[in-house]
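Hi L.,

You mentioned the student needs an example of a multi-chain input paired with its predicted structure. This one should do, with 480 residues in total across all chains.
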Amino acid sequence: MSNDEQRPSPGGNRVRRASREVNALGYLSEGFLQGISLIFSMNEEVWSAVSATLRLSGLSMAVTLLIGVPLGFLLGYCSFPGRGVLRVVVDALLSIPTVVVGLLVYAFISNRGPLGSWQLLFTIPGMAVGQTILALPIVLSLTASAVENTDHRLRSTLLTLGARRWGLLFSTLREARHQILLAALTAYGRVTAEVGVSMMLGGNIKWHTRTITTAITLETGKGEFSAGIALGILLLAFSLLLNGALSFLRRRDAA
Amino acid sequence: MTPPLYEVRDLVCSYQGKKVLGIERLDIAADGPTAFVGHNGSGKSTLFRALAFLLKPESGSLTFLGRPTEGHEELLRRDVTMLLQDPYLLRRSVFENVAYGLRARGERRGIEDRVAEVLEMVGLSADFAGREWYQLSGGESRRVTLASRLVLRTKALLLDEPTANVDEENGFLIAEAVKNAWLRWGVVPLVASHDLPWLDEVTDRRVHMKRGRIVEAEVETDFLL
Ligand SMILES: Nc1ncnc2c1ncn2[C@@H]1O[C@H](COP(=O)(O)OP(=O)(O)OP(=O)(O)O)[C@@H](O)[C@H]1O
Ligand SMILES: [Mg+2]
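Structure written out for the whole complex:
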């Protein structure tokens, strides 16, 4: 510290405030460095959260895609009475708050709930139920749009080339493939970034159901910024990777 | 005597209840190419869509090579193909586009050779087969879509303005390809076009259309001038 600072002076307040800012910055950058070192030292707590996130999102996405892609395709491809209403309902579910999903699923799978005997609360499969409910409308709606937005000449083109019922269906699916992948990636983004469902249904149990997002919430609450930052960097890297893939696909599709 | 390719009787086609085509009687011969001419909106594309079994006529009857067509549209679509006025390339490679109809017909062998053959007929070198759909110019994509119809060797080949976006030299190539489809394979080409000198290359048989009807050539010129 310089002599100026120790000597009381009319400008002392300003100087003191400036030094506090320097300290705050140092505190952040220290946390950042510690965070980086946590990642590279393969800190077990950090990687346990990463692994829980990957297992959870893998499970919920598998179920979501298995149900969502075929149903979303049919929703966009077939015309049947009530289709318009169904489209509106699915679109409305796009913005369902995570905590509401958490609450509803909690009510069903908690001990006193109708599915309580399945012992799903505070387990990865239980959280996956909630995330699937969150991701399904995204995949349904975007897949249906993908099919609806295929070129209006596609059907007559396929017919003139001699395609029949199944050929028509699978070729339409293939024409929409990039948009459907886009739907999957968008849903994946929502699932890895959410906190509400994971927190309420998983309970943030260390080594078990603690995911990246719930761990960040906890560490930040405890003032443990370095761990929070380490996890934040990983989550950011995740979403950058995902969005990179998304914009690559979008650009390719626009070509 | 072989029956006509198509016999059209009292054919009426409408869009959203608005009648745009009304043909009392038209026989289209099976012994060579026929050209369809007429102003914009005269109904050429609509007639072609009905002949390709893409558009269900409101009323009237249609025979194909002497047989009634009603109720057999799905089967007949394998005997008739059409190049749309605004053709669409599938989001696949050129090869996959041209091979699509052959695969749809369950053919497995000799696809490479047949694709190469028709690409050459429309003036595209063999290395075009490996290109993606977005790596083509407007005229090139149109010729790929033509090749994907030629390769099928259907009984009837309906071409709606096949030379739009195509330069003179390639227009000449397409005229040759259309004639060869008839001479080599017995594919009957029906061609709609506004390019009369180009049509002269292909055939002198003409069907004149006006406001959704078939008209005599003399009548048409009278009205036009
Ligand atoms: N999808 C459609 N919906 C409503 N009206 C249509 C539709 N397609 C064509 N028409 C109308 O039907 C009539 C015939 O159109 P068609 O496309 O058959 O003409 P055309 O002879 O092919 O014209 P062009 O030389 O411009 O290609 C026109 O009056 C047109 O406005
Ligand atoms: Mg037309």
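You could point out the following to them. The helical segments of chain B are 44-51, 73-76, 94-104, 111-121, 138-150, 168-185, 196-202, 217-224. Confidence is low (pLDDT under 50) at residues 218-225 of chain B.

Best wishes,
N.
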